[in-house]
Amino acid sequence: IAYMGCLGWGSAYFYGWGTSFYYGFPWWIVGAGVDDVARSLFFAVIVIAIFLIGWGIGVVFFFAVKRKHSMQELNVFRLYFAVELLFVPAIIEFSILRQKIQVPLLLLSAAIALAVTISIRSYGRFLSVSCFYDKPFIKKHFFEIV
């Protein structure tokens, strides 16, 4: 409940500050009332529900595909989607700022993710994560690096 309350107040203030920036009045006169917090909480709950539904669909899809294919075949798709997820937040941000979906960026990110996936699958055996961890400096300062 405290998390949702802080999320509601924070979202209300950020919404107010964004509105003040857009319309050009000073940000320090922004106030968040009960109705602003309620609206922000509603948006937060809706976004959390969308994330949970998407997660559930992903889990169901994963188990359905896992039954039909071996895990070795799925590793390529998992790697591709992991690399693609690096680009998605930036594309969403550009789409929001431009107020339309940025199809060229989507295609570019898909191509880059595919190239990175293919190169990792082809040449990944030459670069092991253990070669970084075996270095004395990294062993000594592992917790500071992480």
UniProtKB/TrEMBL annotation:
Keywords from the UniProt entry: Membrane, Transmembrane, Transmembrane helix
Keyword Transmembrane helix part of the UniProt annotation: yes
Keyword Transmembrane included in the entry's annotation: yes
Superkingdom of the organism of origin: Bacteria
Bilayer-crossing regions: 12-29, 41-65, 77-97, 103-120
Record-given protein name: Uncharacterized protein
